[in-house]
Structures are given as structure tokens and as C-alpha cells.
Specification:
The chain is mainly alpha-helical. The protein has helices at 13-37, 40-47, 51-57, 61-76, 89-104, 107-119, 124-151, 160-172, 176-180, 189-207. It contains 10 helices and no strands. The chain is elongated, with a radius of gyration of 21 Å.
């Protein structure tokens, strides 16, 4: 077994391209065989590199999978969604909810979620990393937007983090769990829009400030 310390740091452009090549091959192998079924030999073959080259970049299967989770986490972390304070709240909720469900209910994202869930008990650091980078990050950004709307007098919320999580869970209703457990296909945009519309109406019924409140 090659120790984690033996993996040399990689910096050059050529090495970065090789690293991406390895990660692409590993992602395909993990997708097909799962974490337990994947081997470094199979990953090397899928990436088109020797096992010796593979070990230059990654000490073991765990470190390779952690890197892929890191990439998937960044891809799913809602970094591209802009919470614009001046935008209409209802429009923002609908746009955010639809974008959020589209991200978590796609085949590539689902594969990462299922794999992380399957190994989180044995490798809790991966579960924690994924949760912090994806779920907690999204809740936190959304909660900060809600805090701004509370300060502006548009919403009345005591716990914005709780409210953010409530809205995200409401958007998942009937969509995420059937999909992640493979009893349903990815939801169509019309179905997503319908569920998000319901979640938005529920959220605003609970948290929209009454006219004249605080004046």
C-alpha cells in the first residue's frame, strides 16, 4: 500500500491535464462499479495511464475518490446562483428552487450522492466534506439572503437557517427521494415548476411580512 505522504504534489499544466484525465477515468469507474467495486488497476485502464503514473498523482483509492467528491461538491454547491436582494422575492424563490432541484435531480449528481451515502458510515470525513460543501453551503447562502429580506421588512423570520432548510426540503417533496432511490426518472421541468410553486406559496404564507408590520 502506498502511503498518502508518498503522493508528490503536481503543479505543471501537463500534469494538470494528466490529473484531469485520471479523474475522468476514475469517475467513470466509480459510476459503473461503485466505490467498493472499483480498483486502482481498473481506474488506470479507464484513464489510459499506467498504475505507476496513477500512484504518482493519487496515493490510493480513498484519496482519488475524495478528489472527485470535492469536484462534485463544487459543481453542486450552487456557486452560480445569484441571490439578488433587489429582485422580487417570489421570483427569487421560484428560480432558486428550480435551479436547486435541477442540480440534485440529475444523473451525475445523483451518482455522487448515492456513493457518498453508501460509504459515509465507513468514511465519515467524506460525508462531512460533502455535507459542508454542498448542503450546508447552499443553506447558508440562502439564509443570508433571507436575513437581508428580513432586515428590509419584506419577511418575518426568527430563524433564517431553519427557514432556508424548510424551503429546500419543500422543493424536494415527491421529487428527490423517488429519484435518488431510482423509483422515478429525473423530474421534468414542468413537474419541478409545479412543486416549487407549491413550496413558494407555502413559504410566503408562513413568512411574508404583514403589510404595515414594523412601521
Amino acid at each position: 500500500m502506498v502511503s498518502t505522504a508518498s503522493a508528490a504534489p503536481i503543479h505543471s499544466d501537463d500534469d494538470s491535464a494528466k490529473r484531469r484525465q485520471i479523474l475522468d477515468g476514475a469517475r467513470a469507474v466509480f459510476l459503473e462499479f461503485g466505490f467498493d467495486g472499483a480498483s486502482m488497476g481498473e481506474i488506470a485502464r479507464a484513464a489510459g495511464v499506467s498504475k505507476g503514473t496513477l500512484y504518482v498523482y493519487f496515493a490510493d483509492k480513498n484519496s482519488l475518490f475524495c478528489e472527485i467528491v470535492e469536484q462534485e461538491s463544487m459543481a453542486q454547491g450552487m456557486l452560480s446562483f445569484e441571490f439578488v436582494p433587489e429582485r422580487d422575492i417570489e421570483a427569487t424563490l421560484r428560480a432558486f428552487g428550480s435551479a436547486y432541484i435541477a442540480l440534485i435531480c440529475n444523473p451525475r449528481g445523483a451518482s455522487a450522492i448515492r456513493t457518498v451515502m453508501a460509504i459515509a458510515e465507513r468514511m465519515p470525513e467524506i460525508g462531512r466534506r460533502y455535507y459542508q460543501r454542498v448542503i450546508a453551503n447552499t443553506i447558508g447562502r440562502f439564509a443570508r439572503y433571507l436575513e437581508g429580506q428580513v432586515a428590509a421588512g419584506a419577511l418575518t423570520i426568527d430563524d433564517c437557517e431553519l427557514a432556508a432548510a424548510q424551503f429546500m426540503q419543500a422543493c424536494q417533496a415527491t421529487l428527490f427521494l423517488p429519484f435518488i432511490f431510482q423509483t422515478a426518472e429525473p423530474p421534468c421541468p414542468e413537474r419541478i415548476a409545479g412543486v416549487v410553486d407549491s413550496a413558494t406559496r407555502m413559504f410566503l404564507a408562513a413568512y411574508r411580512a404583514e403589510p404595515g408590520a414594523g412601521s
